[in-house]
């Protein structure tokens, strides 16, 4: 069995204030209601193969952790994260070779982050 190259990324559009974006998203999470739970099916499919928690509070806890970990990796410049510029946008990248496991922790973080319903969480400057 051979190794696979796995790469995850987060795009930050030119002019995006990361600290403000993080604050906006965390505030949006606090406002989530039970009726919003279905919006997180893709996130939980990626995280654990499906099955949304029964409680909106459990969902909020997971989402807050993913947002905090992703922004910390980008803002603090974690060792397993690098970046490139493309048309004045910044693309944060993590990954590497995998023999069935995850190549880096930030690779998982970025993958989970990108499977959040970003627009529903007030995320306008990232994808």
Provide the number of structural domains.
1
Q: What is the rounded distance between the termini?
A: 33 Å
Strand content: 15-25%
Strand order of the largest sheet: 1-3-2
SSE string: EHHHEEH
Give the biggest beta sheet.
3 strands, antiparallel
Q: Number of helix segments?
A: 4
Radius of gyration using CA atoms only: 15 Å
Number of strands: 3
Instruction: Assign an overall shape.
Output: globular
**Helices and strands: which structural class?**
alpha+beta
Helical residues, percent:
40-55%
Brief characterization of the structure:
It contains 4 helices and 3 strands.
Architecture blueprint of SSEs:
Elements: E1 4-12, H1 18-30, H2 41-48, H3 56-75, E2 82-86, E3 89-98, H4 105-114
Antiparallel strand pairs: 1-3, 2-3
Helix pairs in contact: 1-3, 2-4, 3-4
What does this structure look like?
- The longest helix has 20 residues.
- The mean pLDDT is 91.
- Helices cover 40% and strands 19% of the residues.
- The protein contains 4 helices and 3 strands, in the order E-H-H-H-E-E-H.
- The protein has a 3-stranded antiparallel beta sheet with strand order 1-3-2, with helices on one face.
- It is globular.
- The protein is α+β, with helices and mostly antiparallel strands and 127 residues long.
- It has one domain.
- A hairpin with a 2-residue loop joins strand 2 and strand 3.
């Amino acid at each position: 069995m051979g190794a696979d190259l796995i790469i995850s990324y987060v795009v930050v559009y030119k002019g995006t204030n990361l600290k403000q974006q993080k604050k906006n998203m965390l505030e949006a999470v606090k406002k989530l209601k039970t009726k919003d739970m279905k919006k997180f099916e893709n996130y939980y499919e990626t995280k654990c193969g499906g099955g949304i928690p029964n409680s909106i509070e459990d969902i909020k806890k997971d989402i807050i952790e993913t947002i905090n970990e992703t922004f910390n990796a980008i803002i603090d410049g974690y060792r397993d994260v690098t970046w490139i510029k493309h048309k004045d946008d910044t693309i944060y990248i993590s990954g590497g070779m995998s023999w069935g496991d995850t190549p880096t922790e930030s690779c998982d973080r970025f993958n989970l982050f990108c499977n959040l319903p970003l627009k529903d969480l007030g995320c306008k400057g990232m994808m």
